[in-house]
Amino acid sequence: MSPVSRREVVRNNGDLVILVLAELIDHRGVMAVEIRELECFLVLADELHFGRTAERLYLSQSRVSQLLQSLERRIGGPLFERTSRRVALTPLGKEFLTSLRPAYAALERVVESAREYAASVKGKLRIGFQGAANQTVLSAVSEFQTRNPNCLIGVCELPLNDPFGALRRGEVDAAVVMLPVAEDDLVLGPVFSRQQQTLTVCTSHRLAARASIDAEELADETLIAIDGPAPRYWRQAQAPTQTPTGALIHRGPEVRTLQEGLSLIAAGRGGMLVCRSTAEHNRQWRGIVSVPISGLPESALGLVWRRGEDTPALKAFAGQLRDE
């Protein structure tokens, strides 16, 4: 095929990668040109200086000369005019550069696309969460699915009184749970949604009309506790039995779900510590009110998973959660 007809093919079809690669394969079907030679030619065409080309490619100047000479032998003519003062493209070099540059860029895109596909997250990821999934979790799930269409992400609600059970049974790959988490077989990933705690009580409670309260005012109050397989330290954090200075807080009836707890609160059986967003979510409950409380650690959520099982999908979701 003549140079003129080759340009016609490029203009008419645009298959630059196929065209140039076809020209670089000899009659035995063997690639006649090294990719490194093409890369060296393109950089030298930009720099028109052997020293700077060698620096960009992390090669010696003699190696740059060897690669260029090898390419010129394969093509059958000089690509550069070289003197002691200047380096310039020959007419053949300009013709070759015109065809090669867009083809090489397209080839790079093909390789990068293949690399991204090979590294893409695939399969299925199951995420559990306690209570109502907050906006941070929902946004992370949505963005993860958009960025990783080859991985189906599913969510399910976890029991309030058993934050780690589904994870250990393999029913979910990761869980968004209320802190604290101190389990040897689990990894705590990103922590988020740090919020001030509130005391949720019935409207007739002595503290219900207050704008805010201090943790020491919980002395002699009754807090509804969480019953179930959750570790003792975790249940104690959700319903402490002492104020920060050690005053007694009475332990009230035990519940397994938040809805059970809200029902007992409305019946005047005690109060519960809940985060601000959960309190706002449950405003529709008649007969209860939530009062901000100071002097206690903030509530927070964390993503946890089984130690040693941080899959590419899980790493990607944890990263998305951190971004959110």
From TrEMBL:
Protein name, UniProt field: LysR family transcriptional regulator
GO molecular function: DNA binding; DNA-binding transcription factor activity
Keywords: DNA-binding, Transcription, Transcription regulation
Family membership noted in the UniProt record: Belongs to the LysR transcriptional regulatory family.
InterPro entries, A to Z: LysR_HTH_N (IPR000847), LysR_subst-bd (IPR005119), WH-like_DNA-bd_sf (IPR036388), WH_DNA-bd_sf (IPR036390)
Organism: Kribbella sindirgiensis
Record-level GO cellular component terms: protein-DNA complex
Residue span(s) of domain HTH lysR-type: 33-90
Classification via Pfam families: HTH_1, LysR_substrate
Keyword Secreted included in the entry's annotation: no
Superkingdom field: Bacteria
Cross-referenced PROSITE patterns: HTH_LYSR
